[in-house]
Amino acid sequence: MAAFGVITLILTAFMLIFYAYMFRKTDHDVSFFLSVGIISFFMNLCTNAGGVFELCYMYLGIDVLFLALGFAVSTRGTIGFYTSIGPWFKATFTDTATVGWRVLSLLAAPAGIGLYFGWNKSKPELARECGKLGMWGLLLWLVLIWAILGLVL
């Protein structure tokens, strides 16, 4: 059941990314879906930490329902999201000049934040990218530590 809790946590994060895309790329108000997604993500972390894995069925239902309702909110935006995943991966991982700095900034968040402050004047575009990924890396590490400690303890 712990694996099911982790799977629903990943699916909830995917749903949050989906509605963040819808928020930025369409004119529809998706604040309800984002707020319920954030609450669901936090509650899923707490459920995994508490060991009450039976509630994961509720999170799975919310995720599947909200991902299906994305078509009702904006069919064009939903199709745009799913068709943009492949080109995003291609653009992100084929840029061999900066992929190492991006991975370093994401996995070692303090290094990414330090690169932002160090390259802010000389390489502003790469500095912003490293700083942004450093902040996302910090958030990723906090969630991973919370999830792992919640499952272990």
Number of strands: 0
Shape: globular
% residues in beta strands:
under 5%
Number of helices: 7
Oligomer: single chain
**What low-confidence regions span 5 or more consecutive residues with pLDDT below 50?**
none
Helicity level: over 70%
**What is the terminal separation in angstroms?**
15 Å
Question: What structural class do you assign from the helix and strand content?
Answer: mainly alpha
The mean pLDDT is 88
Write down the Rg: 18 Å
**SSE order:** HHHHHHH
User: Main beta sheet: strand number and arrangement?
Assistant: none
Q: How would you describe what is shown here?
A:
There is one protein chain. The chain contains 7 helices and no strands. It has helices at 2-25, 31-50, 56-73, 75-93, 99-107, 109-119, 124-152. It is globular, with a radius of gyration of 18 Å. The model has no long low-confidence stretch (mean pLDDT 88).
Labels describing this entry:
153 residues; mainly alpha; 85% helix
Question: Which helices and strands appear, and what pairs or packs with what?
Answer:
Layout lengths: L1 H24 L5 H20 L5 H18 L1 H19 L5 H9 L1 H11 L4 H29 L1
Helix pairs in contact: 1-2, 1-3, 2-3, 2-7, 3-4, 5-6, 5-7, 6-7
